[in-house]
Amino acid sequence: MRSWIPFLLASMLFLMATGHVRAKSAAAQGHASDAQSIHRGRTVFNSNCAHCHGEDAAADDSYYNLPQLLSDRKDAFFFHTVTNGMASKGMPAWRGILNHRQMADVLAFIRSIEKDQGITGD
Ligand code: HEC
User: Fold this and answer.
1) Mean per-residue pLDDT of the chain
2) Which residue from 73, 45, 72 is spatially nearest to 59, judged by alpha carbons?
3) At what angle do helices 100-117 and 4-48 cross, to 10 degrees?
4) Gap between the Cα atoms of 53 and 68, Å rounded
5) Smallest Cα–Cα separation from 102: which of 119, 83, 115, 120?
6) Does residue 115 lie within any of the structural domains?
């Protein structure tokens, strides 16, 4: 009768331990892919956007400083503006030049700067 108690305890411990390990590795993977996205976004940014919006998006002129401009904007605004440009202001359209993932990487890069500077709007 008592012989199954250690077995039960052992299985509970096993389940807790494996559940914990799984939760931890999922979080670690999430952070790793965020970091990769930010890294890729920085490269895309510096080769396509930096000559107007500043190296590493750090334009001194607030008219061009994207972390400041975008802090209270939705992601959808970013995708819309980058895809279509703003012809009247001289912002080029990137449709057909950057794909959605490259734009998402650039956005991840800009959001990471907003976070570092504590200016996230959402
Ligand atoms: C030839 C110069 C130029 C290049 C290159 C350029 N932009 Fe712009 N961008 C502008 C101008 C000018 C504006 C209008 C500034 C404003 O509204 O404050 C603008 C505005 C924007 C805005 C809207 C900001 C807001 O809140 O009004 C976004 C988003 C943006 N650019 C993203 C990008 C991204 C991403 C790239 C690179 C893929 C890029 N731009 C490349 C000139 C440029």
Assistant:
1) 86
2) 45
3) 100
4) 11
5) 83
6) yes
Per-residue pLDDT tens for 59-106? 999 999 999 999 999 999 999 999 999 999 999 999 999 999 999 999
Angle between helices 100-117 and 75-84 (to 10 degrees): 130
Per-residue pLDDT, 120: 79
- Does a structural domain hold residue 16? no
The pLDDT-based confidence of 14 (bands split at 50, 70, 90) is low
Q: Tell me, in angstroms, the distance from the centre of ligand 1 to residue 17's CA.
A: 49
Count of domains for the chain: 1
Q: Does ligand 1 have an atom closer than 6 angstroms to the CB of 50?
A: no
Q: Which atom number of ligand 1 is nearest to the Cα of residue 51?
A: 5
CATH code at position 106: 1.10.760.10
CA-nearest residue, atom 26 of ligand 1: 69
